[in-house]
Amino acid sequence: MSRFLSKKYAALSPYTPGEQPQDMKYIKLNTNESPFPPSPKAQKYAAEAASRMQLYPDPECRELTEKIAQLCGLEFENILVTNGSDEILNFAFMAFCDDEHPAIFPDITYGFYPVFAELNNIPYKELPLREDFTIDTSEYYGAGATIFIANPNAPTGIALPLSEIEAIVRNNPDNVVLIDEAYVDFGTESALSLIPKYDNLIVTQTFSKSRSMAGARLGFGAASAALIGDMNTIKYSTNPYNINRMTMAAGLGVLEDEEYTRRNCKTIEKTREYTLRELEKLGFEATASKANFIFVRHNAAGGEELYKTLKSRGILVRHFGKPRLCDYLRITIGAQDEMQALIDTLSDILGGKQ
Asked: Taking the mean position of all CA atoms in its chain, how far away is CA 202?
C-alpha cells in the first residue's frame, strides 16, 4: 500500500473474487455463472441501446423497476435497481448499520458481508453454523442487530424454508433483516411474498445467476417504501446513474423472456442432481444444495489437492482456505458436457483412492 492510504483502511481485507486466469482455456466451474447465454431478447435490446450511449441513462430505471415490481407482485416504490446485488448489500450496510445497530451474519456465508462491515467501520458478529453447516435460526431471534442471511447460503448451497425466514423477521421487529437471494431460482421459495407484511424486511436478488447476466452487473432490492427511500438516499449520494443503458435494456429483455429463464433453471437443477449422483458414486459427500453449485468433499483426497489437480487439467473449481471449508470444493453447475468432463477427470484423478 502507499503512504497516502487512509489509516481507516489500512487493515481492510478485500473480498477475493473467483480467479479468472487467461493462461489457457478452462472449463470454468468456479464463479457460479450460467452456462447459458443471455436471452436473445436481452442481447437484442442491449445492442439497440448501444446507439444511445452518448445520453445518460434514466436514474430511476423506471421501466425496468416497474417490470421487476410486476414480476415480484409489488409496487414501483418497493424496488431499487442496483449495479449487481453487491451494491444493494453495501447500501444496506451503510443505511442500517452503525455502532448502535451492528451487523450479524453466519460465520460461513458470502465473503462480502465482513468486507462491507469493515469498509464502513461497522461492528459485526458472526454466528457459527451448526456442524452440518445449517443455520440455527433461533440464535437470530431478538438479535438487536441488522441481520444478513444468504438463502440459499454460500458456499454450502443449503436453504432455509420460508417459515424459518419469516420467524427471524417476525422476532426482530425493531431491526432490519436482509435476505440475500442470489441463488433462489434453483429450488428455494423466495421471501418476496413477505414484503407487504413486514416493514423491516429487505430481499435482494441478482440477474447474474439464473438470468445469465453476470457480465452486465444488475441486481435489485425489494422492501417497504420507507426502506427503499432510505437506500435511495445512499444511491443518490454516491452514484445516481448506477445502471448503464445497455444493462438496463438487457434487463428488460430478460424479464420479457421468463420462459427462457425458467427453462434454463430447470436444466441446471437437473444437471445438478445428475452430477451429485455421479460424484457420490466416486465417494464424494455433498451438502443439500439448492443453488447453481454443489459443495462436496472426498475423504481420500484433500480439497486443495483436488483443486490444484483439476486446474492443471483445465478445470477450474473454487477452494476456500478456512479450516472448516478446506476439505471441500464448490463446483458450479455448467453445461452437461462440462459436468461430464469434470466427472470423468475426477474419476481418473481418484483412481484407487475411492
From this structure: 15
177 DSSP 8-state letter: E
Residue whose cell numbers read 470444493: 329
What pLDDT is stored for residue 288 in this prediction? 97
Grid cell listed for 86: 453487491
The 3-class secondary structure across 107-170, one letter per residue, is CCCCCHHHHHHHHCCCCEEEECCCCCCCCCHHHHCCCCCEEEEECCCCCCCCCCCHHHHHHHHH
Average pLDDT over residues 96-101: 97
User: What is the CATH architecture of 40-256?
Assistant: 3-Layer(aba) Sandwich (3.40)
Query: Phi and psi dihedrals of 29, rounded to 5?
Result: -125, 40
Q: How far apart are CA 156 and CA 110, in angstroms?
A: 10
CA distances to 124, 198, 351 from 100, rounded to whole Å, are 11, 22, 55
Place of cell 459443495: 295
84 vs 188: CA distance, rounded Å: 20
141 in Cβ contact with 185 (< 8 Å):
no
Domains 19-36+259-353 and 40-256 share a fold: no
Q: What residue segments make up the domains of the chain, in order of their start?
A: 19-36+259-353, 40-256
Q: Which residues of 138-160 are buried (b: 16+ CB within 10 A; e: fewer)?
A: eebeebebbbbbbbbbbbbbbbb
Dihedrals phi, psi of 118, to nearest 5 degrees:
-70, -40
What number is the average pLDDT over the span 339-348? 98
Residue range 19-36+259-353 in CATH 3.30.1330.60: no
pTM of the model: 0.96
All cell numbers assigned to 228: 427503499
